[in-house]
Specification:
- It is a single chain.
- The protein is of the alpha+beta class.
- Helices cover 58% and strands 30% of the residues.
- The chain is built from three helices and five strands, in the order βββββααα.
- β3 and β4 form a beta hairpin.
- The chain has a three-stranded antiparallel β-sheet with strand order 1-2-5. Strands 3-4 form a two-stranded antiparallel ribbon.
- 3% of the residues are buried.
- Among the domains are: 34 residues, no CATH class; 145 residues.
- α1 packs antiparallel against α2 and α2 packs antiparallel against α3.
- Keywords: Membrane, Transmembrane, Transmembrane helix.
């Protein structure tokens, strides 16, 4: 039976060849020797086994002797048996022989690097460092750009918040103006009723009616401005989405304003007719 075991050991070594006896002491000839030494140990083991078997043999021999004796009285028979046993024993012997053979092989790999090779390595290292620095600079620039974008988004959000607050304020103002307009219309109707009931102080009542009409017209103009102002602001900021949303929200308000304008025109026509009637009455009374 053979068994082989191989062990490999590798070691690096460096050897600077600085010969003081060389006359040519040039930078390009400054050699540096380094290498790798590999030691391989092979162990071969041979085992021989001898086996001897034990054999036991047993031999049995039986001998029978018969003796017959005859007398006058009768016949007497006597039998004698003899047994012989032979035993043979064989002994087993086992012999084991082990032979070990060791072989050692040493392999040395030597590499000589000149100054030019070291310069190339230095250049490659410098290039790698430059590439690494460029990558770091690009990462920094990317982070700065992201921060600038975030700041711009924050400023944009602040502007949007201001615009939304302004739109809410304008909406509340529109509601207040609508309420005032309704109140003025009610006052106008009351004054008309007073004109019909009382003929005294006709001129004062007419003046009050004119003032109310002027106030109503001013309120209508203000409402129109409040409706148009958010649209102008959004157009200035170029926020088309908010503009469309605002237009969708203000459709009902625009319809309401149109109805109010029609009612006001009708009321103005009625007022003019009433004024004409009052003037005619005054002229008739003076005559």
């Amino acid at each position: 039976m053979r068994r082989r075991t191989t062990t490999t050991t590798t070691r690096d070594y460096y050897d600077d060849d600085d010969d003081d006896d060389d006359e040519d002491d040039d930078d390009d000839d400054d050699d540096k020797t380094n290498g790798r030494r590999t030691t391989t140990t092979t162990t071969a083991t041979t085992t021989t086994t001898t086996t001897t078997t034990t054999t036991t043999t047993t031999t049995t021999t039986t001998t029978t002797t018969t003796t017959t004796t005859t007398t006058a009285t009768g016949t007497t028979t006597t039998t004698t048996t003899t047994t012989t046993t032979t035993t043979t024993t064989t002994t087993t012997t086992t012999t084991t022989t082990t032979t070990t053979a060791t072989a050692t092989t040493t392999t040395t790999t030597t590499t000589t690097t000149t100054t030019r090779g070291r310069r190339r390595r230095g250049r490659l290292r410098l290039r790698r460092l430059r590439l690494r620095l460029l990558q770091l600079l690009l990462l920094r620039l990317r982070r700065l750009l992201l921060l600038l974008l975030r700041l711009l988004l924050l400023l944009r959000l602040r502007r949007l918040r201001r615009l939304l607050l302004l739109l809410l304020l304008l909406r509340r103002l529109r509601r207040l103006l609508l309420l005032l307009l309704l109140l003025l219309l009610l006052l106008l109707l009351l004054l008309l009723l007073l004109l019909l009931l009382l003929r005294l102080l006709l001129l004062l009542l007419l003046l009050l009616l004119l003032l109310l009409l002027l106030l109503i017209l001013l309120l209508l103009l203000l409402l129109l401005l409040l409706l148009l102002l958010p649209l102008l602001l959004l157009l200035q900021q170029q926020l088309l989405i908010l503009l469309l949303l605002l237009l969708l929200q203000t459709q009902q308000q625009l319809l309401l304003l149109l109805l109010l304008l029609l009612l006001l025109l009708l009321l103005l026509l009625l007022l003019l007719l009433l004024l004409l009637l009052l003037l005619l009455l005054l002229l008739l009374e003076q005559q």
